[in-house]
Design brief:
Blueprint (H helix, E strand, L loop, with lengths): L4 H5 L3 H10 L4 H19 L2 E4 L1 H9 L18 E5 L26 H8 L3 E6 L33 H8 L5 E6 L5 H6 L3 E4 L19 E6 L2 H11 L29 E4 L1 H5 L5 H16 L3 E4 L8 H16 L18 H12 L2 H14 L5 H24 L2 E5 L14 H6 L5 H6 L3 E9 L2 E9 L4 H12 L19
Parallel strand pairs: 2-3, 2-4, 7-8, 7-9
Antiparallel strand pairs: 1-3, 4-6, 5-6, 5-10, 9-11, 10-11
Helix pairs in contact: 3-4, 8-17, 11-13, 11-14
Bound molecules: glutamine.
The site of glutamine has 13 residues, from loops.
Length: 497
């Protein structure tokens, strides 16, 4: 039976899979509803860079009824999924949100995209993002800013801005993002969603446009905790083509997700919430989570996290250094757009990079090249690397005694889309998300309620490979949380409102 785009918009990933398997609708019918919803919402939100209607139609056509095909056991069969535009997709334009890759069509699929396709996912589109994943607003895209579906006048967060926005308006039930310093968790939180930054090395980075290679991870953005675990279980696992991919056996997280919090020890730093700088609603969200955990029989202890304040300084040195090296490959010769210049090779390089990159990307390349240059290396890069080591040690020690640490996702709610702020003001918003990337540990953002019509989330971090503990905890709290009037249950937002 055809399904209206309004009904479709509020389906979770599990709902869509159930509906497909039970024969309530077919994959092509679901895709029609997805395309109608995307069409209705895009003028106001701009979450998409490239649609893949032919590819999606073909993929959906493989699952004409009941979402099953004898012998495949494909677990995402027929489900519409969106992928951030820094994951390579074979034959489909991949821009990384940059002008310099405006014409780039990769000849291969990223490791995660391969896994999605093998599981039967219908990849509908490539989502908008801050250029090369640098940013936390969605405003740094060369393809226009993305609006927050809760209120299109606000930023949706970034850099996985489109992946969060399209899930929030109900264009797809789940999307893939990348997180170098918070880019899955922060937009998930601003859009009332669940976002996982997995353990470093748990999910393949093969075929992902690199920002900071030692920090980057790929992860799912969904509306429910169960959906998130379901998708994580599909994309996680070893990939020999990514040299930092870990070989430890992967244990699926969905089977234990309903196990509750009894036996889990959770820590939080109350001083961090009282010291100021954290919006009262975000501090309150942590207290709400603590209460829900205790109410469900979990133990909560108080700890001090004295390093938090050094995170942003260290992260922005390390990330800029790595990105200045990673972006050296975009020279107009090997990939993407070439700006021809009369003066020869060097002029072509500088014209291509000068016109191809946006301001934030240039700023980081300059910052990184400066910090890595001889004479400054010890003062900046080495020092930042040492601070990073301190973070890893602090969390290793702490997580030897507790299973989970709770933190806010961001200090403050989303800013107005048209409000300019300095780079430093933007960077400071990452204070609570960068520690997990520097330590390499998994971290999950999930919503606990609404305040003034906007969602408020919390963040939980755990030891290496303990994504299972994060999902159990978040699933327990989710049962106590209510999100009033979410955009996926509303009519499409109107452009210009
Ligand atoms: N906001 C951070 C930055 O701009 C994080 C980006 C990310 O996680 N990709 O670097």
């Amino acid at each position: 039976m055809p399904i209206s785009h309004e009904t479709y918009a509020s389906l979770t990933l599990e709902d869509t899979l159930w509906g497909l398997r039970s024969g309530a609708f077919t994959a092509p019918e679901l895709l029609d509803a997805a395309l109608a919803r995307i069409d209705a919402c895009e003028p106001a939100v701009n979450a998409v860079i490239t649609m893949d209607i032919p590819g999606a139609t073909k993929a959906a056509g493989a699952w004409p009824r009941n979402g099953t095909r004898a012998g495949t056991g494909a677990s995402l069969a027929g489900a519409p999924i969106a992928v951030k535009d820094n994951l390579m997709t074979r034959g489909l334009k991949t821009t990384c949100g940059s002008r310099i890759l405006g014409n780039f069509v990769p000849p291969y699929d990223a490791g995660v995209v391969e896994k999605l396709r093998a599981a039967g996912a219908v990849i509908v589109c490539k989502t908008n993002m801050d250029e090369f994943a640098m940013g936390s607003s969605g405003r740094n895209s060369a393809y226009g800013a993305t609006g927050n579906p809760w209120n299109p006048k606000l930023v949706p967060g970034g850099s996985s801005s489109g992946s969060a926005a399209i899930v929030a308006y109900g264009g797809v039930p789940a999307a893939i993002g990348t997180d170098t310093g918070g880019s899955i968790r922060q937009p998930a939180s601003f859009c009332g969603l669940v976002g996982m930054k997995p353990t470093y090395g748990r999910v393949s980075r093969w075929g992902v446009g690199a920002l900071g290679s030692s920090l980057d991870q790929v992860g799912p953005i969904t509306r429910t905790v169960r959906d998130n675990a379901l998708l994580f279980d599909i994309i996680a696992g070893h990939d020999g083509r990514d040299s930092s991919s870990l070989e430890n056996p992967f244990v699926p997280t969905l089977p234990t997700i309903e196990d509750g919090v009894a036996g889990l020890r959770t820590a939080y730093d109350p001083g961090l919430l009282d010291r100021g700088g954290v919006h009262p609603a975000h501090a309150e969200a942590i207290r709400f989570a603590v209460k829900a955990i205790r109410g469900a029989g979990g133990e909560v202890v108080e700890v001090a996290l004295p390093l938090v304040k050094y995170g942003v300084a260290a992260y922005y040195i390390i990330c800029a250094c790595e990105s200045s090296a990673n972006l050296a490959r975009f020279d107009g010769v090997r990939y993407g757009v070439r700006e021809r210049a009369g003066g020869g090779l060097w002029d072509t390089y500088s014209k291509t990079r000068g016109l191809g990159f946006g301001d934030e990307v240039k700023r980081r390349i300059m910052m990184g090249a400066y910090a890595l240059s001889s004479g400054y290396y010890d003062a900046y890069y080495l020092k930042a690397a040492r601070v990073r080591r301190l973070f890893a040690t602090e969390y290793e020690k702490l997580l030897a005694g507790v299973d989970v640490v709770l933190l806010p996702v961001t200090p403050a709610p989303p800013r107005p889309l048209d409000q300019d702020c300095t780079p430093l003001e933007n960077y400071l918003g990452d204070v609570f998300t960068v520690p997990a990337n520097m330590a390499g540990i998994p971290a999950l953002a999930f919503p606990v309620g609404t305040h003034d019509g906007l969602p408020v989330g919390v963040q939980a971090m755990a030891g290496y490979f303990r994504e299972d503990a994060l999902y159990r905890l978040a699933r327990t709290i989710e049962k106590e949380a209510t999100l009033s009037d979410p955009p996926w249950a509303r009519p499409a937002p109107e452009a210009g409102q």
